[in-house]
Amino acid sequence: MNAALADQLRRERRRRRLLAMGALLLLAALALASVCLGARGIAPIDVLRMLCAPLLPAHWSAGVDPAQRAVLLELRLPRTVMALVAGAGLALSGAAMQGITRNPLVSPYTVGISPAAAFGASLAILAGAGGSVLGAYFTVAAAFACAVACAAMVLAFAALRGVTATMLVLGGVGLTYLFGALTASVQFIASEQQLAAIVQWSFGSLNGITWHEVAIAGAVVLACAPVLLAHAWALNAFAAGGDETAAALGFAVRRVRAVVTVAAVMATAAIVSFTGVIGFVGLVAPHIARLLAGGDHRRLLPFAAATGASLVLAADMAGRLLFAPVIIPVGIVVAYIGVPLFLHLLLSSRNRGEL
């Protein structure tokens, strides 16, 4: 019996290692395809030459097309990196929020971040934030400030009754409707050009992403990710038995829930402020990761991040290539790609008796 159990554990470890390697290889392949494919294709070897040019002898990069180099470094590469950051950050935050609330329907947007950010961006556009760099950053700042303010109100509301999962969800639902109504009011009084800009922002898009935006969003996500990963054991306790189990195991329930929520909110707000509302990723990517990698948050969180990044990358490529030269916003395409994949995995898992 012991030998059989040890053999089963070895097979399970081998399966997890192969699964992790497969996820990383898929992510690398999608990232390479994202920078290579487009209206003007770039060969993978040329991509590697341009990326490694500072480390290679001068004659190795002598034949590089300057136009291709500009397209790669200023357009496709920042877009690809932002897709990685956005997908990973949203999925990581979604997995943490689902664990801390024990609710599979929770996403990073449950506390009202999405409509609050849309309201902030709508106000900025209504105030005349145009296409200039200063105007774009004013829109980003307004969206981020409103998203954080909404999350702070939810946490304050929950603190009045104890920071419980129910209070977080109910407070978020209430403020979601409030900020949705405020955004609709702004749209009602906006001009046609302003209304078009507001609607376009709400779609969620990676068009026009710059390295400065990637650096800011990436820095916030990188700062929040270790906080979420450090609470993997606590998330396991919450997911296994709720507040009582977590408290019995020695975790400070209210503090852990507040810290995890704040980290997830900050990462999500930073992403949404630059990309607009990319829905669905924070909800479905954790489920896909859970079906493939199991419910242990030590593995679930990083695997969810890889799954979300792959999902956003694939959606962005599909939106750029399928209807070229028209670019479909990634926030729209990601649902078309993610829903069938999620339903397939869900049905497969039920057929195997896993759910």
From TrEMBL:
Segments crossing the lipid bilayer: 80-97, 109-130, 136-160, 167-189, 209-235, 256-280, 326-347
Predominant location category: membrane
GO molecular function: transmembrane transporter activity
Domain of life: Bacteria
Swiss-Prot/TrEMBL keywords: Cell membrane, Membrane, Transmembrane, Transmembrane helix, Transport
GO CC, one annotated term: plasma membrane
Subcellular localization(s) per the UniProt record: Cell membrane
Keyword Cell membrane: yes
One example of a Gene Ontology biological process annotation: siderophore-iron import into cell
Topology with respect to the bilayer: Multi-pass membrane protein
InterPro entries membership: ABC_BtuC-like, ABC_transptr_permease_BtuC
Homology family: Belongs to the binding-protein-dependent transport system permease family. FecCD subfamily.
Name the UniProt record assigns to this protein: Hemin transport system permease protein HmuU
UniProt organism field: Herbaspirillum frisingense
Lineage, opening ranks: Bacteria, Pseudomonadati, Pseudomonadota, Betaproteobacteria, Burkholderiales
